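Example record

One chain of 171 residues, shown exactly as stored in the release files.
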Amino acid sequence: MISLPKTYWKIPEKEDDFLPSACLLLEKRRELATVEQALAAKKEEFQMKMEELQDRREELERKEGQLKQAILKFDKFLKESNWICIQNTAASKTLELGQIKLAALNLFQMVAKHRKLSTDVPPDDTEAQLDLVQLCIGDLIDILANFRKSEPTPVSQPEPMTESQSELESR
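Predicted structure tokens for this chain:
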């Protein structure tokens, strides 16, 4: 009998060690196919998530564009609305100035007519008109002050008596 070295007399530790290498190769191929299927499923899931994220990104970009347009429209509305407000304020102030100038012209014409002065002051020279009105008012104040000085001081009159007071005096 031939004696073999002890290294060839190895006892298998696991059941897999009894399987021939062709079976092991088939089993490894099956495991590889399972792993590849799982990898393909993960790739497909990843691809679907990427497509979903791309759709969401496109939707966000579309909404961002809409928001920018809305902001531009609102900015236009605010503008210059401010411009309408400025125009209204200017119109109001212009009207008020016109009324003041007409009132000054009216006072000037009344003073000129009363004093029989020439009205050679231009109608748009409000300052000169008001200067003449001021002179007239100053003259009237002086006249009134002189009149009050020359007026005698009034003597106070006794108050009329009531019936009960006159009865008391007669007693």
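Notes: DSSP finds four helices and no strands in the chain.
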